[in-house]
Amino acid sequence: MKEKLVKYTIDLVNIPSVIGNEKEIADFVESFLKKILKNIIRYNNSIIAYNDLDPNKKTITLLGHLDTVPGINEFTGKVIDGKIYGLGASDMKGGLAVMMALAELFSKTESRYNLIYVFYEKEEGPYETNGLEPLLKNYNIIQQSDLAFALEPTNNKIQMGCLGTMHAWVKFKGKRAHSARPWEGENAIHKAYKLLEKLYNFGRKEYDFEGLKYFEVLNATMVEYSGGRNIIPDEFKINLNYRFAPGKTIDQAKKELIDFVEGQAEVEFTDVSPAGKVCKDNPILKKMISKYNLEVEAKQAWTDVGRLSMYGIDAVNFGPGDTAQAHQKNEYIPIENLEKNFEIFSNFLSC
Fold first, then answer.
1. Residue 248 to residues 8, 156, 163, 168, 259, Cα–Cα distance (Å)
2. Percent of the chain with pLDDT over 90
3. 227 pLDDT exceeds 90?
4. Those residues with Cβ within 8 angstroms of residue 320's Cβ, 6 or more apart along the chain or in another chain
């Protein structure tokens, strides 16, 4: 199986699939799955695949996104020192390769669970255009899951829940003037100094939830202004990205961000994603963690565990990718990570 895992990963990284360009990789995966599974649903460039579901079995869904962020990889498709290189190798084409290998394995041998495989587009973009959402809205099969695994990069640790995330433009208003006569205007950039100082001192806020340690962070990530280099700007916008812990609703997190701004500027929310449920009491998950003595930690990022939580589906992150390699130049995945992830899943899912 090692050779197949390596081959599938190389095949996948050799197919460019930067967000918005997933058709080729979706066609490749669909063709692969059609040879081994009975039921294939294709929606745009997202796929649900499964064999007939036994009502007497619990159901597990394995899911992963087909897209990558833009990036550079000078060694795409090469194996160097036990690592497979390529854009998206860790985030998360290695996880997709494991899913393909598991689908192939359990097309020939029985599993103790019903297995559903979900490959979807546009995860690396805004919450509203994510390709998993229409699958959940238009079909009810994923909602039948007793547990779902997102094979996001976790270094083969169980990562519980996920941080919620929101983006908001904070808009400062001023009065336009010539920069040689600033007293005739009101500099919108200068009006942001108090907020920028608060952001500089924010640091990270430790938040304990169900025995797991999450870190809430708030950062300015982009700015925009009106005018030119010799103009006192009449508008200055700062994009704030707030990462908030499980246990908080979207409305609570919005209020916290608005309170942080303290009325200094207008706040316009542009992209909001919910935090993920921490499902430590899920019986299937408890059994898996205990059987393989898996390390459990908080997910210090957002994944579609948050989206699945909104649909009442217990889900965790558990994948072979190296978290430190996600979105990096010359990204890679260690082959031993692939083997270990496949070994745990295949053993646990077997009868």
1. 39, 27, 10, 17, 15
2. 98
3. no
4. 90, 94, 95, 98, 151, 153, 156, 333, 337, 338, 340, 341, 342
Confidence category of residue 2, pLDDT binned at 50, 70, 90: confident
Q: 148 with 209: CB under 8 angstroms?
A: no
Q: Is 44 left (phi over 0), alpha (psi -120 to 50) or beta?
A: left
What pLDDT was estimated at residue 226?
A: 83
Going by pLDDT thresholds of 50, 70 and 90, the confidence category of residue 1 is: confident
What region does 329 belong to: left with phi over 0, alpha with psi -120 to 50, or beta? beta
pLDDT score at 351: 86
The yes-or-no answer on residue 234 being catalytic is: no
CA distances from 87 to 2, 62, 139, 301, 334 (A): 21, 22, 31, 20, 14
Please compute the mean of the pLDDT values over residues 7-23 and round it to a whole number. 98
Question: What does the buried/exposed string (b/e) look like for 295-330 if buried means 16 or more CB atoms within 10 Å of the residue's CB?
Answer: eeebbbebbbbbbbbbbebbbbbbbbbbbebbebeb
Query: Would residue 123 show up in a list of annotated catalytic residues for this protein?
Result: yes
Whole-prediction pTM: 0.91
CA distance 160 to 258: 28
Q: Which of 22, 121, 123, 314 is catalytic?
A: 123
Q: Residue 264: count other Cβ atoms within 10 Å of its Cβ.
A: 15
Residue indicated by tokens 């499902």: 279
Tokens of 301: 């990022």
DSSP 8-state assignment for residue 239: E
Q: What is the pLDDT of residues 330-340, one digit of tens each?
A: 999 999 999 99
Given the residues 11, 67, 234, 322, select the one marked as catalytic: 67
Residues 308 and 149 sit within 8 Å (Cβ to Cβ): no
